[in-house]
Design a protein that fits this description.
alpha+beta, two-stranded antiparallel sheet, 2 strands, extended
Length: about 120
């Protein structure tokens, strides 16, 4: 579908992201009140769109002005590396499963730079 209709897919993605950004601007998000937002849309080699962005959050600690402890507490409040906090369906979807494309054309080196254990 994407190859046959790239314009429709791009417009759909643009609509979804603009609605997402509108939610950030209108309502307090999970991060608090966002007062500015900057995003750049990029394309991968095979045409998939994805965004990179920055959020300016009200009452966030300022680098250089606030203590490291205050900044660490702010980050720890919203970001975690604990996978067990995610629903089981998300946990299963976020785990890498090796497929044929991982080592394309029988190369020894893993294509996505995923560290492989040493084999004896």
């Amino acid at each position: 579908m994407i190859r046959n209709n790239p314009i429709t897919c791009a417009r759909c993605y643009d609509h979804k992201t603009s609605c997402f950004y509108t939610l950030f601007n209108k309502y307090p998000s999970i991060f608090g009140q966002v007062y500015d937002l900057f995003c750049v849309t990029k394309f991968q080699n095979h045409g998939n769109e994805h965004d990179h962005g920055l959020l300016w959050i009200e009452n966030a600690p300022i680098y250089g002005s606030n203590t490291n402890e205050k900044m660490e507490n702010f980050v720890d409040k919203y970001i975690s590396c604990d996978v067990s906090l995610l629903p089981i369906t998300v946990q299963n979807a976020q785990k890498h499963q090796h497929i044929r494309a991982c080592k394309k054309k029988n190369h020894v080196v893993y294509r996505f730079h995923y560290p492989l254990p040493l084999m004896n």
